[in-house]
Write a structure and sequence with these properties.
Strand content: 15-25%
Largest sheet: 7 strands, mixed
Distance between the termini: 36 Å
Strand order of the largest sheet: 8-9-7-10-13-12-11
Number of helices: 9
Shape: globular
Structural class: alpha/beta
């Protein structure tokens, strides 16, 4: 059994991570640490777990004896945690913050997009940086084109996100009274996840120099992300569809569909569903994911499966909400 611990266990993504791990046949969840709710029962914070777990949040942690550590603290806190603690050399670390997403000589974290970096994760990586949820939706929309050197025009993408993308901490923009029946643009062309998208596309297409114009939008729903992207592409639609089908053919969670997807096709799953269309010479790409699963906890467990040589879909077979 893989012995797992979680640092920063009170947030939405951590709650989903706990749900997956306690039902994973190859994992033993040893402890869940939290500074803010230490001593409280996990089911009193993550109420959907009633009847499934009888643990309390820990105020202490012991990294010895663990096989994998999931870090779910806010941005900047994973670097702080690793600097303050004696971390066993063989401990696998999966970071869900954005501390290590950008490649840098100061760290050895692999960017955890399996559709891009599955080989390094299978071949001995110890530290993995989980992608941002908005970044993942855009990256999965574009990397088949990047691999085929087809990102040669400006890219325009509107990314609509659910309230849980902002985390569990209370703030005005995730209150029901504000969020319901409302939409607003935020951080246009300056979102914190844009650098990792550019890094990913440049890794696939070294000649990539196009402008990424990303407009994030806060949506009036709880969870899910829809990324609607368009750009110039000279190929016929049938050729483009084949490029995407060929690229994702041996990946377990990303699928090409002939119908424009709904958010509910993917909410509560680890899937990404992509639809392609060609209109007046422009390629239109629509991608949907669950921000808490494919965009966070589900992808983190997928990464863990790769690091430990398990079948990729173990623990991640889930049914969408559908209705």
């Amino acid at each position: 059994m893989i012995k797992a611990g979680i640092i920063g266990g009170s947030g939405y993504a951590a709650g989903e991570l706990i749900r997956i791990l306690i039902n994973h046949p190859d994992v033993e969840l040893k402890w869940v640490h939290s500074r803010t709710v230490a001593g409280q029962r996990i089911v009193d914070v993550h109420q959907g777990l009633h009847g499934e777990i009888d643990m309390t949040f820990s105020s202490t942690y012991d990294l010895k004896g663990l096989d994998v550590l999931f870090c779910c603290r806010p941005a900047g806190k994973t670097r702080e945690f690793l600097a303050e603690n004696d971390v066993p050399e063989d401990l696998r670390i999966i970071d869900l913050s954005r501390d290590y997403r950008i490649s840098d000589p100061s760290h050895d974290f692999v960017y955890g997009l399996s559709e891009l970096n599955r080989k390094p994760m299978v071949r001995g990586a110890r530290h993995v940086a989980n992608p941002g949820c908005l970044a993942m939706a855009v990256e999965l929309s574009l990397i088949p084109l990047a691999k085929n050197l087809l990102l040669n025009s400006d890219i325009h993408t509107t990314v609509i996100t659910g309230a849980t993308s902002e985390g569990a901490e209370s703030r005005p923009t995730n209150h029901y009274a504000w969020r319901n029946d409302n939409m607003v643009v935020y951080r246009p062309f300056r979102h914190t996840q844009e650098p990792e998208i550019i890094q990913t596309l440049s890794a696939m297409q070294q000649s990539f120099r196009s402008q990424l114009n990303m407009v994030p939008v806060r949506g009036a729903f709880s969870r899910g992300i829809m990324a609607v992207t368009y750009l110039e592409c000279p190929l016929e639609l049938a050729q483009i569809i084949k490029i995407y089908q060929d690229y994702y053919d041996d990946h377990n969670f990303t699928f090409i569909t002939s119908k424009i997807p709904d958010l509910k096709d993917v909410v509560n799953t680890n899937k990404c569903i992509i639809h392609l269309d060609k209109i007046d010479g422009k390629l239109l790409i629509t991608a949907v994911i669950d921000n808490l699963l494919k965009g966070a906890a589900g992808n983190a467990v997928h990464t863990m499966n790769l690091l430990f040589g398990l079948q990729e879909t173990i623990g991640l077979t889930m049914k969408s909400v559908a209705f």
